[in-house]
Amino acid sequence: MSSVGYSVALTTEFGAGLRDHLLSHISKGYLQEDMCFALWRPSTGQSRRTAILTEIILPLEGERKLHGGASFMSSYLERVCGLALERGMGIAFLHSHFTPGWQGMSADDVVAEERLAPRIFATTGLPLVGLTMGTDGALSARFWPRIGRGRFSREGCGTVRFIGDDFNVTFMDQLAPKPAFKEELKRTYSAWGEEKQNLIARLHCGVIGAGSVGALVAEGLARMGVENITLIDFDEIKRHNLDRHLHAATDDIGKLKVDVTAKILEKHATANKLNIRKVPVGIHCEEGLKAALDCDISFSCVDRPWPRQILNMIATAHLIPVIDGGIRLSVTRSEKLRSADWRAHTVLPGRPCLECLGQFNPSDVSIERQGLLDDPSYIAGLPDNHFIHRNENVFGFSMNAAGLMILQFLSLVVQPAGISDTGAQLYHFVTGTMDKDKVYECDEHCAYKNHIGIGDEFPYPVI
Questions:
Q1: Taking a C-beta distance cutoff of 8 angstroms, is the pair 213, 398 a contact?
Q2: pLDDT per residue as tens digits for the range 95-143
Q3: Residue pair 327/395 in contact by the 8 Å Cβ criterion
Q4: Which is nearest to 305 in space by CA: 282, 278, 330?
Q5: Close Cβ partners of 381 (under 8 Å, ≥ 6 residues apart)
Q6: 21-66 tens-digit pLDDT
Q7: 108 vs 106: CA distance, rounded Å
Q8: Distance CA 128, CA 77 (A)
Q9: In sequence order, what are the beta bridge partners of 152?
Q10: Given CA atoms 258, 259, 260, 263 in this order, what sign does their dihedral have?
Q11: Nearest-angstrom CA–CA distance, 43 and 320
């Protein structure tokens, strides 16, 4: 699996604040750059380190000079360093350029950041993050990690990710090159155009749970040309999986689901180069969590409360959108289908989280963490309507649930007619009707809402 190494993430609301300041003169027709500092928190994956920008520190009167370019006074830097120390955060240095898209660095830019890097590291213990904004609001970024005594290396960020209703990603082409057109994807390109297809193809997508729904989601991603897919699942194929797991056959019984799914995806993928990371552990293990933090978007194809709690934390604290789905069936005592419902929704800042949507209960998480949901004697004492007993499923229902999740993904990324949020969707099989969930925002006291963008410093243990 190739890795971009470094990345930056910010909410679209934060990005709007940066544009208002950095492009204010350019938007009025003046050839005048601007600059500011910001604070960031780390999000550390298995092979990617992300700076989550969380606070803009705008210059006060007399703290910067505008002269076509822009420079800052020592008093400004001292104030920013003091705030970073007080909050225990890293420092980012931002400035604007006069052209759109991903920006290179002038010799003066390099010298300015190279001189800043030692002071920032000595103050915070974290590397300087430098960013440049183009006239279209696109951000390019780089880290300056310490590589020796008094020596710092400039490392380009493969992506800068804007997370929110205006979801977008700016890629560094040298680290994440645009895919070449392929005849196999001709119809896909014609649906939403080259720009959106380039975005879809270069997103690193995580599929958490490679079961009946997850295998279908992974198949959809591979068919649409996604180049980087991480599969996370500790489970093996069992005989009772064969009626609904897309890729499994009798001779796959006993094999890991991630291995079975990956083998078929390699045959079906339309990307020029498909990179699949197989992670044969649960997301509640450190290896599984770290692998998920390397992804740009994750699909929650799990049916237990503990993994959902972890994914909820990832979506809010680490700014990695999570597309979640679930199936619930009800049968009569005579084993006739009474109802079947499935749902799909996308969790990210500004939308209700999984706990507020009722997709997991914290008390059930506690029970699962104690191992009781795998204890037959404990399960036998649970009421018939407990979620642990609602494990019936069939292939047709899995297909529809996976389809809704893929559509949530496409709405977020493609944004047809400017609409990226179709809401939390709930489909009722018996009546053939679709409802929108009436929960439009998190509860006022939601713990996740109050820890957006906090990254590795999320205060509650989840693994």
A1: yes
A2: 999 999 999 999 999 999 999 999 999 999 999 999 999 999 999 999 9
A3: no
A4: 282
A5: none
A6: 999 998 888 889 999 999 999 999 999 999 999 999 999 999 999 9
A7: 5
A8: 13
A9: 146
A10: positive
A11: 10
| Three-state DSSP class for residue 446 | coil
Closest of 282, 323, 292 to residue 230, by C-alpha: 292
Confidence of residue 390 (pLDDT cuts 50, 70, 90): low
433 has a pLDDT exceeding 90: yes
Burial 371-390 (b: 16+ CB within 10 A, else e): ebbeeeeeeeeeeeeebbeb
The answer to whether 244 and 398 are in contact (CB under 8 A) is yes
CA distances (Å), 266 to each of 226, 255, 277, 350, in order?
Answer: 12, 17, 12, 36
In single-letter form, the type of residue at position 112 comes to: A
Span 214-272, pLDDT tens digits: 999 999 999 999 999 999 999 999 999 999 999 999 999 999 999 999 999 999 999 98
3 state SS of 373: helix
Which pLDDT does position 100 carry in this prediction?
Answer: 94
DSSP notation for 334-366: TS-EEEEEEEEEEE-TTS--TTTTTS--HHHHH
The alpha carbon of 92 is separated from its chain's Cα centroid by a whole number of angstroms, namely: 21
**Residue 20 three-state SS:** helix
Query: What amino acid occupies position 205?
Result: C
Question: What stretches of 224-327 show up as alpha helix (H) in DSSP?
Answer: 257-268, 286-292, 305-317
Nearest to 208 by CA among 269, 268, 288, 309: 288
Pairing of strands 48-57, 297-300: unpaired
pTM over cut 0.90: yes
Dist CA 311 CA 355 (whole Å): 11
- Listing DSSP states for 42-97 in one string gives EEE-SSEEEEEEEEEEPPPTTSEEEESEEEE-HHHHHHHHHHHHHHT-EEEEEEE-
Q: Which of 171, 122, 113, 168 is nearest to 143 (CA)?
A: 113
The contacts of residue 53 (CB under 8 Å, 6+ apart) are 8, 9, 10, 14, 38, 39, 40, 92, 453
Tokens of 273: 């180069």
CB atoms within 10 A of CB 395: 13
Cα–Cα–Cα angle for 371, 372, 377, nearest 5°? 135
Nearest-angstrom CA–CA distance, 155 and 129: 10
**Could you give the CA distance from residue 437 to residue 424 in angstroms, rounded to a whole number?**
5
Q: Could you give phi then psi for residue 338, rounded to 5 degrees?
A: -95, -45
Helices (H) and strands (E) in the chain, counts: 11, 21
**And the tokens for 136?**
């279209």
**C-beta atoms surrounding 88 within 10 Å:** 12
Size of the chain in residues:
463
Cα(386)–Cα(377) distance, integer angstroms: 15
